[in-house]
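User: I'm curious whether this sequence folds into something compact or stays loose and floppy. Could you predict its structure so I can see for myself?
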Amino acid sequence: MENKFKQWLIDNYEQNTLADMANHGCAGGIGGLIYYKETYALYQEFSASLHETMQAYKEETGEWPQYVIEELGDDVRFANALVWFAAEYLANELTHGIYEDEIS
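Assistant: Here's the prediction. I'll summarize afterward.
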């Protein structure tokens, strides 16, 4: 099954921004992923893909991403944490943290 959130990342961010997500996370400020209003809307649109990504992480590591699980009980904060987690995880999968000028 195609991960629609992964495709959204590809369609909306350049290699270097994705590498920034992979290397530094989203907390530093990635346009379109800054405000709860933005991340909650993304959660509503891509919730199936986001949960699928978190499940893949659990299968890979044997545990849930702790900073996402800590936000259970608060819809908006949970949505934000899950969107950030999935963006960082998928950005790493897409770029392996490599910037455009490092690609040979």
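Summary: The chain has one domain: 4-99. Residues 4-99 form one domain.
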